[in-house]
Fold this protein.
Amino acid sequence: MEIEHVDAAEAIARAAGPAVLLDVREQNEWDAGHAPEAVLLPLSTMRGGPVELDEDAEYLVICHSGQRSQMVTEALVDAGYSAVNVRGGMMAWEQAGGPVVRTGH
């Protein structure tokens, strides 16, 4: 199955609208820097079984570089959700000028 990919600039624009930016990195990565509008749902928590998400939402799935988010995007699409992978992950997001909040030290 083909999944949709968007570049960081498009993800930044879509995240400002109704789309949900779903960050699938782990807590320590999130603390080191995340998009302010993102929702944290670590990949490790998804391995325990199905995750309940809003079936009507569009999800922009992001990780560090785009590999984990691609796996999660594929799983979400397979489960019937509207999800796209953010190509290049948070590295590309930051390079494209996307806002980043740092909560860790």
User: Anything to note?
Assistant: The chain has a mean pLDDT of 92. The chain has one domain: 4-95. Residues 4 and 82 are 10 Å apart (CA to CA). The chain is about 35% helix and 20% strand.
